[in-house]
Amino acid sequence: MADYTDNGLLASIKALETVVKPALDATDPLATEQLRLVSGFLKFLRARIEHGYPRQLFELDHALRLAQQVAADAVLLNSPELSQRLAAAVAQGQAAAARAVPLPADVRSAAAELATVVAGVARAAGSADAPLRRRIEQQVMAGSKRWVEMQRAWFAPMGFDLRPDELPAIDQALYSPGSTHN
């Protein structure tokens, strides 16, 4: 069966704008605002839907790289539980990424676990000695630059970015050098 997602989104947007909007009570600003928000989100979803899976792969790749960067220093935090959880999350991420066609649920799960564990490493670093804390903080900040750039490019159609002319195209932002899936 053919994928009618785009047609469904277009029909939904058209129904909201040509049927629902004229039927709204013009004196109800909340209803008008909600209609604008829902219609805007559907337009955004339509513009980004084809990039959803590449985004998931980007996030897995990003989280895996960041976890691998902090792994050696995470051991120095003297938290065997955190180190074991980080190692397990890295293994889970690598297994998901190694599949010929990674399952979206596996990709999301692995990326989420990696992000959670890296956040735990960053929190634990807050009580570490200054050089170790700085090193972990710098690794996280440096490793997050591409993620922030991708997020800005992802949400560019929403019109919130103060410098949209500086943003890369979404395809360029999602490209991960060295990734096996890009």
Written overview of the protein:
The protein is mostly helical. The chain folds into two domains: 46 residues; 124 residues, no CATH class. The protein contains seven helices and no strands. The chain is elongated.
Distance between the termini: 27 Å
Quickly count the helices.
Answer: 7
Count of distinct structural domains: 2
Largest sheet: none
Percent helix among the residues?
A: over 70%
Mean pLDDT: 92
| Beta-strand content bin | under 5%
Sheet/helix structural class: mainly alpha
Low-confidence segments: none
Q: Could you state the order of secondary-structure elements as H and E?
A: HHHHHHH
What's the short story on this structure?
This protein is an all-alpha fold. It has helices at residues 5-23, 29-48, 52-75, 80-98, 104-125, 130-154, 170-174.
Write the layout of secondary structure elements.
Elements: H1 5-23, H2 29-48, H3 52-75, H4 80-98, H5 104-125, H6 130-154, H7 170-174
